[in-house]
Amino acid sequence: MSVTILGIESSCDDTAAAVVRDGKVLSNCIAGQEIHRRYGGVVPEAASRAHQINIVPVVHQALEQAGVRADELDAVAFTRGPGLIGSLLVGMSFAKGLALGLGCPLIEVHHLQAHVAAHYAQHPAPAFPFLCLTVSGGHTQILLVSGHLEMTLLGQTLDDAAGEAFDKTGKLLGLDYPAGPEIDRLAREGQPRFAFPEPQIKGLDFSFSGLKTSILHFLKKNVVENPAFVQNNLADICASVQHRIVTILMNKLEQASRQTGIREIAVAGGVSANSELRRQLVETGERLQWRTFVPPIEYCTDNAAMISMAGYFKYGKGEFSGHDATPLARWA
After folding, report:
1. How far apart are CA 27 and CA 314, in angstroms?
2. SS3 152
3. 238: closest CA among 301, 176, 166?
4. Domains of the chain by start residue, with CATH
5. Residues 6 or more apart in contact with residue 61 via CB below 8 angstroms
6. Which spans in the chain are helix H?
7. Residue 109 in contact with residue 78, Cβ under 8 Å?
8. How are beta strands 4-9 and 15-21 bridged, if at all?
9. Angle between helix 209-225 and helix 162-172 axes, rounded to 10 deg
10. Could you report the per-residue pLDDT of 217-240, keeping only the tens digit for each?
11. Each residue of 273-285: pLDDT tens digit?
């Protein structure tokens, strides 16, 4: 029996909808929000208002591209959290209303669980068990994945996320938001010739707040000595910051592989689109005989294909949500 799932993602500033049928992505549509560029970061109130404008046309587009009628849907999946409350509320409310009108089940999805599920949309997919480094603007984790929906947290950031370190550095350098892609682009033109410290955190946890402070002091000191320092060394600064962030991630991932003996290694989340992280993953994988997996770019950043995919596997297990569900800004 064929199963068709509509997924809705609205955890931050991207309004997304996608249709998955029997584990195959039929459409994956996203509407971004340019308004946040002028503020250098996401403004929650502006984000939720934009979601209200975008959600109907985005869902319509996803159904149209998939060639699926609304009454053919078997369930509607949505991001319950973690994320911005106002943004989550828009997506959740729409999903509830649509599911109620269609008389089909409602499926709540954990945003980070969905990032891992993005790997099931490609072939070959990682074999269980595998390790997944889930790294984005709000989260940095290492997960041991033993099943489509079974995950164990091995390590996580104790303060800031890797993506946040990229964005805050970009703000210090005067780059547009979001700064991660811009730092990645500039880093290709430079060399990592400035040394930044690696946090000495025991176990598999991460910390990026100290690195951000180190970058701030480095820039202040050098700008005092030479006001044109950033302008004259921008590419090398970006390359150096990116190199340190990526080596922090890779060193912990390599440690996790040694401790668990697992060589099926995946990365997910927005920062997995970073070219240096992808390069080092492949390089380390060849050195340590890993099988490495990186989602296509369209499945790295926030998207609804991953929500639909997670919803597809939850549908198979009969894990449905009640209409009394509320959005969760934080969700363990």
Report:
1. 19
2. strand
3. 166
4. 4-116+300-316 (3.30.420.40), 126-294 (3.30.420.40)
5. 17, 27, 29
6. 44-66, 85-102, 111-117, 162-172, 179-187, 209-225, 229-260, 275-288, 305-316
7. yes
8. antiparallel
9. 20
10. 999 999 999 999 999 999 999 999
11. 999 999 999 999 9
